[in-house]
Design goal:
alpha+beta; Alpha-Beta Plaits
Length: about 80
C-alpha cells in the first residue's frame, strides 16, 4: 500500500483553493472527510501520495495557501509530520 499524506486547512474555502492549486500544479489530490482522529478545523482534508508532498508544498506556497498540518497515513494509521 502506498503511503499518503493528509493536508489539513483552517477552513473549507482554503481546502478548495488548495485543491485547485494542486491540480494546476499537475498533482492529483483526493478530497476526503476529516478523519475522526483529527480535531475538526474544517470538514475536509486533501490526500496526496507521500512522494508528491514537496511538490505540493511548493505549489501551495506559490499560491500563498497555508497548510494547518500534515499527517502521514499508512495502513490506516495517522501520525503528524
Amino acid at each position: 500500500m502506498t503511503a499518503k499524506v493528509l493536508l489539513t486547512f483552517p477552513n473549507t474555502r482554503t481546502a478548495i483553493a488548495a485543491e485547485k492549486a494542486l491540480l494546476a500544479a499537475g498533482l492529483s489530490p483526493t478530497v476526503m472527510p476529516m478523519p475522526e482522529a483529527l480535531s475538526a478545523q474544517c470538514g475536509i482534508v486533501l490526500s496526496l501520495p507521500e512522494a508528491d508532498l514537496e511538490h505540493g508544498r511548493a505549489a501551495l506556497e506559490v499560491a500563498k495557501i497555508h497548510i494547518s498540518a500534515v499527517y502521514h497515513l499508512q495502513n490506516g494509521k495517522l501520525s503528524p509530520l
